[in-house]
Design brief:
- This protein is mainly alpha-helical.
- The protein folds into two domains: 1-33; 34-66, no CATH class.
- Helix content is 67%, strand content 0%.
- The chain has helices at 5-31, 36-49, 51-65.
């Protein structure tokens, strides 16, 4: 039983460190305080381990960057109006 204690201590240390880093990542995302480097690191993590959420995030970013089509110089296009 004495030979098991060091493994339990090391495992507890790693679990605590992982929990602290997870909490830190969530706090940064919540505040939006992630700088370029931290944001890129979190994006790389998302891409590697959570491919579906990363793809959804990229779609949302692309949709936000799209511009709406400009209106015609002749005015708004009305339905039911025939072109002459």
């Amino acid at each position: 039983m004495d030979g098991l204690v060091p493994y339990v201590i090391v495992s507890g240390f790693f679990a605590g460190t992982l929990g602290l880093l997870t909490w830190f990542a969530r706090a940064i995302r919540r505040r939006g305080a992630a700088g370029g480097g931290v944001g890129a690191a979190l994006a790389a993590y998302e891409e590697a381990f959570r491919a579906t959420s990363h793809a959804a995030y990229q779609e949302i970013r692309a949709e936000a960057e799209r511009t709406s089509p400009t209106e015609s110089p002749d005015g708004p296009n009305r339905r039911g109006r025939r072109a002459r």
